[in-house]
DNA sequence: AGGGGTTAGGAAAGGGGGTTTACAAAGTCG
DNA sequence: CGACTTTGTAAACCCCCTTTCCTAACCCCT
C-alpha cells in the first residue's frame, strides 16, 4: 500500500530485465528507448545486473558512424530457477536457466489418497532433486524455487490456507518444503503464476492492464492491473471460475450453480459435448485430456459435433470474458493453460466473435484477445518467475547492505 | 503507467488532506500516525497547504505535560469547489466549501428533446452561475469545477466519447463548457465520481481495494484498486451494469440479454415488482423514484410484496456482487446512489445474506459490504473531488515552478 | 520565580531514485 | 590524420522521504 522510491527502483529493475530477456542481445540505447528511462538509469541497472553475473556483454553493434553500441544479453549460465506446479493429480517441475529456457523436467503423479501434505511435499522434493541432478547445476547456482499450489495461499507466511481438491486447511507448506529444499522458496497459486508468466514473457508484456484467463480443469483469471499483479486484500483475487454465468445453472463443487467453471472448465466442456451428443466417440469419459484432444482433432477435420461443442463453449466463455472486458477495460485478454493451447485458433476465433457481440463497443475496441504465446507450461514458468522476482528483490537489498557495509 | 517520485508526493498530499478533512481539527502528530509518514513530511505538506490557505491553524491541544500540539483544520472559506452531475433528465450542481459542505445547490431539468450538447451546456452554465451567485463566493475563490457526464469520457481531451442516453458521439464537452465557465474544469463519469467520493469521504477511505456499486437508473461499479481509481486502458473500466447475470435473460438497451442492470437498476426493480404482482399499488409506472420510495415504505410497514421484491432484487444484486468479491477480493463493497440510499438497511441485510451464500469463503471473509455513508449526492461530491484533486495537482506544479522562479 | 522534565515542531543532514550535463572512449569519413 | 558522431560513464542536481539535532513551549516542583 505504502509506496516508496525503492518500489520505483524495483519496478524499473524488473522492466529492464524483462526487456533484456525479450530482446535477447540488446544495447543500452534500445533499452532506454523501450523503457522510457534515461540512459544513465539504464546503465546503472545494467551495471548492477552485470556485477551479479545475470547478464554478460556479448559484443558490439554498429551505430551510424559513431562508437559502436555494446550489446548485453542474459547470462543463461548465471543461475538457475526452478518452477513447481502442484496440481490435483501431478507435480510438474521445470528447471530454467536465466534466459528462461527449460534445462530439465520432472513429473511425479499424485495418486488419489496420496494427497497428505507430507506426501505431496515428498513428491516435490524428489522432483526438485531430480531436475537439479539432470541439469547438473551446482546447488549454489539455483537462485530460487517458485511453487504454485491451487487454492488460497498466504505468500508471506507460506501457508496454503485452503486447497479445494484435497481439503487442506492452513498447511504450512513453505516450512514443510524448507525441510527438504535448501533454496529460497516462493509460494503462490497457479492463477497468479500464469499471469506473471504472461506479464514477463508472454502476451501481457508491456501492458498496464491485462487479464490472463486460465482454462484448465479449473478456471480462473490472473489480473494484471496498473502494471503489476492484482492480489486483492487477502491474496485471493482472480477467482473468476465461480462467477455466476447462468443463474440456477449447472451445479458446481463450490456449492453454487451456474459457475463459469462448470461450462468452460474441462469437465464442463465434456458436459457440453454430452448434452449435444450423449454417446459421441469424441468423449473419453474418464480422460479430460483425451476428450479435449479429440475435440481439437475433430474441429480440424470438420466434425460438426466437435465444431458445435467448441462454439458452445466459446459462447459461454465469451460471455464471461465480455464481462471482464466491460468491468476492467484491459488492453489484452490472454487465453492460457492447456485447454486453450489444445483448442487453439478455432476456439479463439469463436471467442472473439462472441465477445464482440456481448461487450460494449468502447471497452472492446481497446482490447485484444489472444492465445498465450508461451510454448511451455505457463504455471511452471510463472512459478520460476516468482523466484526470479525474489532474486531481484534481494539484489536490491543486498546492494543496499553492501553499500552500508562499505562505509 | 510510469511512476516517478512526484507521484509519491501527490499521493501523500492527497492522503494528508483526506485525513485532515476526516478528522477536522487535528494535529500533525495525529496525521503522522494516521498516514504512516514521518513527522517532517507531514509538517512540510501541512505547511504547503497552510501557505495556500487551504488550512488554518485553529489553536492548541494539551499534550501530556509538554509543548501543546498545534491544531490545523480545513479552511472552509479558503476556496470553493463545484460539482456538476449531468444525468439523463436533469443537471444537478452543488457548490462546496473546502470542508466539502454544501453551500449552494441548483438544479435544471433536461426535457426530452432538449439534449443537444449546446442545450445541456447551457443548463450547466446557468446552474453554475446560480450556485456561485447564491453562495456569494468571489469568482477567484472557485478552485475548480468537476463535471460528471454519463458514458465514456476521455478526461484528458475533455471529450464525451459516447453518451448512451442521448446518442452523443465525441462531443468536445469541455471546450463547449469552457466558453461559458472560466474556472478550471475536470470531466469524468458518474461511476468514477462516486468511487472517488467514497475514497475521499466515504466508506472506501483508507482502503486499498474497494468496489463502489452504483445503484441508480443505470448500474455500474467504480473500482478502487491499489489505493487509486482503476480507469482501464481507455478510461471505461467499471461498466458492471452490462455484466451477464442471466444468459438469455431480460433484454437490455445495450443489445444483450440478462444484464445486471435489467434486474437491479430502477427500471429492473420495477420489472421485478411487475412480475411478482402486476397491478401492485406500489407501482408508479412512469416514476422510478416514486416506485422505489413506495417499496421502501412498504418494507418498513411489512408489506409482503415489497419485502419480496427487495429480496428478489437483493438476490440478483448479490449474485453480481459475489462475482466482484471473488474476482477482485476487495476490502469493502459500498452500495451507493439513490436506489441504495432509499432501500437502505433492508436491502443491505438481504444482500449480505445472499452474497454470503454465493461468494467463496476466503475472499468473502475479508470483505465488508456497507451502505454509502455520504449523505448528499455522491456524484456531485465526487465531481467536486475531481476539482479538488486537480487543484492539489496544480499546487504541486505551482510550487515547483515557484521554486524554479526563485533561482 | 526559576530550573528540570517533556513534548512539539522546525532546520539540516543523509540516503534512495532519476535525469541532465560534461567528458572520455571508440568508432567513421573525408 | 583530423573532424565528426555516437556511446557510455561520472558528476552534479532535483525530488522525495527520514533521521537527527536543536529550539520552542509548556508542566511541575522546589
Radius of gyration of chain A from CA coordinates: 22 Å
Instruction: Give the number of helices of chain A.
Output: 13
Q: In the CATH scheme, what's the topology name of the largest domain in chain A?
A: Nucleotidyltransferase, domain 5
Largest interface: A-B, 61 and 61 residues
Q: How many structural domains can be distinguished in the coordinates of chain A?
A: 3
What is the number of strand segments of chain A? 16
What is the CATH architecture assignment of the largest domain in chain A? Answer: 2-Layer Sandwich
Oligomer: homodimer
**Roughly what percent helix of chain A?**
40-55%
The rough form of chain A would be described as globular
Top CATH class of the largest domain in chain A: Alpha Beta
Give, in spatial order, the strands making up the sheet with the most strands of chain A.
Answer: 6-5-4-7-11
Helix/strand order of chain A: HEHHEEEEEHEEEEHEHEEEHHHHEHHEH
How large is the share of residues in beta strands of chain A?
A: 15-25%
- Low-confidence runs of at least 5 consecutive residues of chain A: 401-407
Spatial gap, N to C terminus of chain A: 32 Å
Going by CATH, what is the homologous superfamily of the largest domain in chain A? ATPase, nucleotide binding domain
Largest sheet features of chain A: 5 strands, mixed
* SSE-based structural type of chain A: alpha/beta
